[in-house]
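User: Show me sequence and structure for the first protein, then do the same for the second.

Assistant: Starting with the first protein.
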Amino acid sequence: MKIDAVRKYAMALEAVTEEPHHQSSSFRVRGRIFVTVPPPEEVIHVFVGEEDREVALVLHPDFLEKLHWGGKVVGLRVALAQARVAAVESLVSKAYEHAVHKGVSRKRR
């Protein structure tokens, strides 16, 4: 899968923007990052919840690995060259929903 296809899919979701994030690019919904694209755009980092992450790792170990940040797992690293389009689109959608729900739950507090 190519990054252009990921970009097209992510940008078609409601209220999504693409913005810089340090040396990477990021896709955000209402300011919340749900995917980052580090250079040279061969992998993406998808921020999904734990349950979705664990299921995806079992189903797609050939192109997914855990994404660690500060000693904890925060998402998945997706190797685009090996990735299946339907799986990546599903993960991007789940990350988007995760970011939307995270924002809603924080507003309720």
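Switching to the second protein now.
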Amino acid sequence: MVYDAAVITVSDESFWGRRANEAGPAVEKILEEAGYRVVHTTLLQKEQAQIERELIQAADQMKVALVVTVGGTGLGPRDAAPEATTAVCPRMVPGLGEAMRAAAVTVSPRLLLSRGVAATRGKTMVLNVSGNREAAEVMLRAVLEPVDMALSMLNK
């Protein structure tokens, strides 16, 4: 089955034009290669309320099956992707977050500090991956198979 997906990049530096957004387009490419139809991409500042609104819009109005947030998962004072996700997604899927961190450690041990989560809102799965391009790629690839199974369960 072909699922619709959204990629939400959360980066102050990229939003303000100080750094290229490499991770968001890399995630989009992986999803398309895996058979997803990426119907929405956006670049946001690290503002929790803004991230929450975007997640709700993707899940409730656009009805995408998968949302991947890219960035905003670290320990910085403005890193709020996990908080935004948990605020609007009632069901956590901790195994996926654990698997993403386990895969990311192959890129750098520092990625154990990623606080990214996986959760569902209705029939939509939300994943938080690192804003580091290489880490984002490794994290997403590590969970594509179980995410596909989860989406088939959510969309019965």
